[in-house]
Structures are given as structure tokens and as C-alpha cells.
Amino acid sequence: MHTPSSPARMLARRSFFRVAGAGAAASALVLAGCGKDDPEPTVAGTPTLTLGSFVTTTSSDPNITVLNYAYLLEQIEAAFYDKVVATPPADLQPGELAYLTDLRDHELIHREYLKYALGTSAYDNSLSAPLVFNFSTFTLTTRTGVWTAARQLEEIGVAAYNGAAKYLTSAEHLNALGKIVSVEARHAALAREVLQPGSFADNVGTTGLDDAKTPAQIVALIQPFVPVVISTANLPTT
């Protein structure tokens, strides 16, 4: 059984994550210089979501594509934590709702400055209504279910950023997304630690590095949460 952390330890953790969130927010200043002249990503009339911004009929801007990809991930995470904080499980231990609230606030920061950076190139500008994400595959009525889901989503986010960073051609975007993934990795570590004390860095494996997955691999993992089919046609592969 998990033994609740001491108030001092919990306060230290909360302070750490607030500082991390503030650092990510500051990187919005970097993103403020992003161009707004890229063509707008498109969503087909059928229930298919295509992430990407076409420069010609045969290629897409990798920076806009990756930012839209990251934007979708942050929307999912923010929606998840918003749902949990609104209706938390009754068996959360003291201080854990505050943790989850901090994580939600960080994800909201990430989501909003990615949206700002994309401007008219944000994929959801062409949607008639916001996407409503589906978290029915998770058990959100129990403490263990919530933290297990949080760990899964945060580790997906870390692997997504690690796998997509190489496709960026903008140093500003790379710097900003590097700050985001640093915060996401701390979120994942917190979820692991809450579920099993002492497991803070268990996901790094034998290499000492967090996992990295291709956009196509990540899309397969997040598809159950998204109410439309996500097309990988314009996601970078090389």
C-alpha cells in the first residue's frame, strides 16, 4: 500500500512543478516570433483529421506539422486533467488533487502557447466544433486508475516529443518543445512515484534515456481518445 508523502515533501514537489510550469510558460516568448504566413492545415469533410501545413502539393512544412502534432497531444492531456480535477476519485490521498491540478495547469499552458504559436495554422481553426476527447478506456473513478492513466499519457507525450524533435528545422521551435518535454518527463516521473515510491526514473531503461516513438506510433496510441480518424499521411517520417 502506498504511504502518503510528508507535507514537507509534497510541498517541495508542488513547488518544483510550479517552477517547471513557469519555465515552460516563459518559452512562449520564443514562440511569439513564429511566422503566421503558413497555409492552414486542412480537415477533410469525412471524419478524418489531417495534421500538416502544405507548402506545395507534395510536401508540408515540418515545423507546422510537428507543432500541430504537439498541439493535439497537449489538448488531450489538458482535457484529461480537466476531467479528473472536475470529478476526482474519492480515494485520492491528501495532496494528490493539488498535484493533479498543477499538472492540469501546466498542460493548459502548453496547449495555449502552442495554439498561439500556430496562429491561423492551428489544425482546429477549420473545425466547426472542438474535438471532444474520449477517456472511456481509463478507470477514472479510482486513485490508481487516474494515476495509471496520467502515467500513460505523460509517457506517450515524452516519447512523442523525443521522436519528433529531429523533424524540426526551426531552432526556436526546437528550443520551445525541448522545454515542454522536460516538464512532461517530470510529470511522468511524478505519476510513477505516486503509484510506486522509488520508481521515479524507472522509464529510462538500460540506456538511461526516455523512450522515443515515431509520429505514426504515437498516433496509434492516442487514436482511441480522438473522435475522428487521425491521418498520418502528412506526418514526417524522414
TrEMBL record:
Its domain of life reads Bacteria
- A Pfam family it matches: Ferritin_2
Protein's UniProt keywords contain Phosphoprotein: no
Is the keyword Cell cycle in the record? no
Question: What are the entry keywords?
Answer: Signal
Signal sequence coordinates:
1-32
Q: Please give the name of this protein.
A: Ferritin-like domain-containing protein
